[in-house]
Amino acid sequence: MILLKNSPSLPSCYPKVASFFQEKIKTFLQENSFASQLATKMLEETGTRFSDWIDYLALPFDPRLEKELRQLGLEPIEHPNLKLWQKPDTFLPIVWLVENPPFIKVALQVDYITDFIIRNNITTTIEGSPHFASRRAMVAEEKNTRLYVVERRAYRHIFALDIPKDIIWKYLQSLDLWRTRKRYFDDSWDGMKQTLALTYRIVDMIGHDLAATAVLEVEKEYWQANCPIGDWQKFSQNQLGLGLGNYDHFVFRSSRILFRLLVQIFETLGFQLETRSYFPEENKGTQYFRHAQANLCIAAEVDLKESEKDIDFSHQDLSDEAAGNIEKWTRQEGESLLRGGIYALAIRCDFQKIQEKLAQKGEIFQLIQESSHFKKAISSPSSSPSKKAYLVLVERNDAFGGFDFLK
């Protein structure tokens, strides 16, 4: 893999930052028995790590701690009332420094708080109404620790955030518009143009952030229907009321002549371009996107000639020459934003444990990359030849925030 020279940043590792978070989480789990038992269940029953689900970490305020965060490279998030910190370009949770009361708080991101409450037989109060932009509930309090679960739609607020009822209604309408849109076209160019027009319409209705959330929510549903092992993994995570809160990124594929339109749709939804990579062994180019507000990441793949790797292939027209594996996939299955759907959805997990569990279902994974910082594998076509969508397993260590590790 070659990280292209016109990419904005080089993926890095931050072992000291990772150690800081690991130590705080370890202390929390020692003090909170419910969270400790849940962490064990996550590993044994779903093959995922407790840390892969954390949305934010709240720590008692201390000037020395604030100094330590700054020394570790965390940056303050502008907020009128709260002391919030983050490590840019990583998948680490937000750190919230709390003056009173002096609790250590951990919040886990789940699909639906009600599912978590029911599955874990908890009695609690949910802050925020259904379809709020942000909801949360405290599910365990022990000693000086509190465990929360949060449910988000486009906004990374600590507390429950209300949005006007008319926006909620329009958000639900947007979900239906995207679910019921036409995906099968004789002319894929016409299909992508219609999809772009619908994207503009939804953005006008609810704004970029909620529109991105709505589109990816529906695309996840479509992927799940096309990926049996992904559906089974989500089912196992649902047994703990978690859903797919541990998603890492989404992989979309496009034919060469339609790649610029795919990029335009994502940019219309508010996604920002990040790194671009070229894979010479596959003649493949990948454009990575991140939506900071909606907390979503996308990898868009296209067949690419070596002579094109230094151009802005995301915004320049590509000819229909140099057809490779991606072009073959789109011809057989369809464009990812049309009938093909998401090519692969990546989840964060314990790399070894989850593969052992899924092997019991007859699923074999093909290793893509493996280092101490970053491990990635994809479900194999040989275990289910008829599949058209895939599950990707990702294990991130040392606060690595990239999508591919440079050897």
How does the SSE layout of this entry go?
Blueprint: E1 2-3, H1 15-31, H2 33-46, E2 54-60, H3 63-71, E3 75-77, E4 83-86, E5 94-98, E6 104-109, H4 113-119, E7 126-127, E8 134-142, E9 145-152, H5 165-179, H6 188-226, H7 228-238, E10 247-253, H8 259-268, E11 272-279, E12 284-291, E13 296-303, H9 325-333, E14 344-348, H10 351-359, E15 365-370, E16 374-379, E17 390-396
Parallel strand pairs: 2-5, 6-9, 10-13, 14-17
Antiparallel strand pairs: 1-11, 2-6, 3-4, 4-5, 7-8, 8-9, 10-14, 11-12, 12-13, 15-16, 16-17
CATH architecture of the largest domain: Roll
State the end-to-end CA separation: 9 Å
Mean of all residue-level pLDDT scores: 91
Number of helices: 10
DSSP summary, beta strand count: 17
Question: What do you see in this structure?
Answer:
- The chain is globular, with a radius of gyration of 21 Å.
- The chain has 407 residues and is α+β, with helices and mostly antiparallel strands.
- β7 and β8 form a beta hairpin.
- It has 2 domains: 144 residues, Roll (2,3-Dihydroxybiphenyl 1,2-Dioxygenase, domain 1), CATH 3.10.180.50; 174 residues, 2,3-Dihydroxybiphenyl 1,2-Dioxygenase, domain 1 (Roll).
- The chain contains 10 helices and 17 strands.
- The model has no long low-confidence stretch (mean pLDDT 91).
- 34% of the residues lie in helices and 25% in strands.
